[in-house]
Write a structure and sequence with these properties.
2 helices, about 25% helix, about 45% strand, elongated
Length: about 80
């Protein structure tokens, strides 16, 4: 499953971050083709398992842009516009 975090920019809604629940598919495929076991051993249950992966992707440029948009203000002080 994939979900997006969106932000209402002055120019419309755009994706800010993508969050994907990848299951254990990626690690299983890496194990299959690399020959290296990527399973995790649980000492408590004495079993091994391949963990699920949740991939978060956020760009620094869009994140910085949202901070600038959210904090941009113009005030008029004594007839002068200040940013």
């Amino acid at each position: 499953q994939t979900d997006d975090v969106e932000y209402l920019f002055p120019f419309g809604w755009k994706e800010l971050e993508g969050i994907a629940h990848r299951g254990n598919y990626d690690l299983t495929q890496h194990t299959k083709y690399s020959g290296k076991d990527l399973a995790v051993y649980d000492e408590e249950t004495k079993t091994s398992y391949t963990p699920d992966v949740v991939e978060c992707s956020v760009g620094c440029d869009r994140l910085l842009l949202t901070l600038l948009f959210d904090n941009y203000r113009e005030d008029i002080v004594e007839g002068e516009t200040r940013t």
